[in-house]
Amino acid sequence: MASSASCVRGSFHLATKSLKGRVALGSVTWKTEFDSLRCNMANDKQQIRDLIDNWNRASAAADISKILSLMNEDAVFLRAGHPPMRGRQAFAAQFQKAIEHVRIEATSNVQEIEVSGNMAYCWNELSVTMTPLKGGSPMRHTGPVLTIFRKKADGTWVLSRDANLLAESAGKN
Fold first, then answer.
1. pLDDT tens digit string along 55-79?
2. Domain segments of the chain: what residues?
3. Phi-psi region of 108 (alpha: psi -120 to 50; beta: other; left: phi over 0)
4. Contact status, residue 73 vs residue 88, Cβ threshold 8 Å
5. What are phi and psi of 31, to 5 degrees?
6. Mean pLDDT of the chain
7. According to the CATH classification, is domain 40-168 in 3.10.450.50?
8. pTM for the full model?
9. What's residue 41's pLDDT?
């Protein structure tokens, strides 16, 4: 689902009389600082949406290295009933353990993204289906997730903090 944000530009047409009485038509285009900020924010929001999509694809592909590249070294994951999971290595160990037993598929429905400078948050409705590799019924967990992203010096966004309230779905599938 690739899309690009477009910057807003303003323009107006200009008619002037020359010394010989002729009318010259022209146009002037401008881009205000506000337009530039709005454009950057739209691009930032799209980059965050792309990060979420890349995370979901990497999860389905069991691509741990790709997922780790999408998070800050000191990322923290908060889950109800569990102690905080701190850092990339803790995440990698947990993910590796999970993919030895289940195939993971996730879909996201972004509800809101707000950007302020080099920080952003995203409220997302997430659905994760874990299908046992050795057979059995898939387990489905759904619920809201609130994620904080940080923009690195190179302009890329990474997950910094993540609090999910996923619960097992009644239908399990």
1. 999 999 999 999 999 999 999 999 9
2. 40-168
3. beta
4. yes
5. -135, 115
6. 85
7. yes
8. 0.77
9. 74
